[in-house]
């Protein structure tokens, strides 16, 4: 059975994808000299929020995810960001492969809310690998599993995420609403003669903030 190690060379914003995407450049090493025909690779990418420090400016956006700061010692726990896969071509020894990390700006997704809330620094990531290895030997092909303990860590600069999102959603974001809520919002916009959705939301926020407690 082969012996494998994984490392992340880089994670960068993919400039030519149809949808928002980061790309992880992986280095895979097989140390026994076995000839690898292919690997059907799977990966879980987790964010480990407890492995970094936070500024006061981060607290407002993180409160909805983890509560007030005095609770963070209990609530800052690793969580799944995404699952992805790649087909690794044959190699012997060491190879590098690109792993697509499809992203979303949907605020119903915990990872998006977290990344939007953090203003600067790096995001600690853990990449956990699994999959099927197809080997090529003197007696034909063999099949084995990627060992369960294969993983890699990487600190993703927040700036990389921000630049990627800005290229797909320049100075904008979006939230998902139920049809009835969207209809009520459209009715409010029409009745008050508002010209844009931004103006509509600002009017509602102003009414809320100006209402007596």
Please tell me about this protein's structure.
- By secondary structure, this protein is α+β, with helices and mostly antiparallel strands.
- Helices cover 27% and strands 40% of the residues.
- The protein has 2 domains: 4-168, Immunoglobulin-like, CATH 2.60.40; 179-210.
- It has helices at residues 59-66, 72-75, 110-117, 158-168, 179-191, 197-210, and strands at residues 4-13, 21-30, 35-47, 79-92, 94-102, 122-137, 140-145, 151-157.
- Strands 3, 4, 6, 7 and 8 form a 5-stranded antiparallel beta sheet that branches. The protein has a 3-stranded antiparallel beta sheet with strand order 1-2-5.
- α1 (59-66) packs antiparallel against α3 and α5 (179-191) crosses α6.
- The model has no long low-confidence stretch (mean pLDDT 89).
Q: What is the helix fraction of residues, given as a range?
A: 25-40%
Number of strands: 8
The CATH topology of the largest domain is given as Immunoglobulin-like
Q: Give the DSSP E fraction (strand runs of 2 or more residues).
A: 35-45%
Return the average pLDDT rounded to an integer.
89
The ordered H/E elements are EEEHHEEHEEEHHH
Beginning-to-end CA distance, first to last residue: 68 Å
Task: Using the 3D structure, state the CATH architecture of the largest domain.
Answer: Sandwich
Model regions low in confidence, pLDDT < 50 over at least 5 residues: none
Radius of gyration: 22 Å
């Amino acid at each position: 059975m082969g012996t494998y190690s994984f490392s992340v060379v880089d994670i960068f914003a993919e400039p030519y994808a149809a949808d928002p995407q980061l790309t992880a450049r992986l280095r895979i090493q097989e140390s026994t000299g076995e000839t690898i025909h292919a690997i059907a690779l799977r990966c879980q990418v987790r964010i480990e929020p407890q492995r970094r420090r936070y500024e006061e400016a981060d607290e407002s956006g993180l409160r909805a995810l983890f509560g007030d700061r005095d609770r963070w010692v209990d609530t800052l726990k690793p969580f799944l960001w995404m699952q992805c896969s790649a087909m690794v071509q044959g190699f012997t020894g060491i190879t590098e492969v690109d792993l697509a990390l499809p992203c979303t700006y949907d605020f119903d997704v915990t990872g998006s809310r977290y990344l939007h809330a953090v203003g600067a620094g790096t995001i600690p990531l853990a990449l956990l690998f699994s999959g099927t290895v197809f080997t090529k030997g003197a007696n034909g092909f063999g099949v084995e599993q990627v060992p369960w303990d294969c993983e890699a860590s990487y600190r993703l600069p927040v700036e990389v995420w921000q630049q990627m999102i800005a290229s797909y959603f320049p100075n904008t974001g979006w939230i998902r609403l139920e049809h009835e809520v969207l209809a009520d919002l459209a009715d409010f916009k029409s009745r008050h003669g508002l010209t844009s959705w931004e103006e509509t939301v600002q009017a509602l926020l102003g009414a809320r903030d100006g209402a007596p407690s």
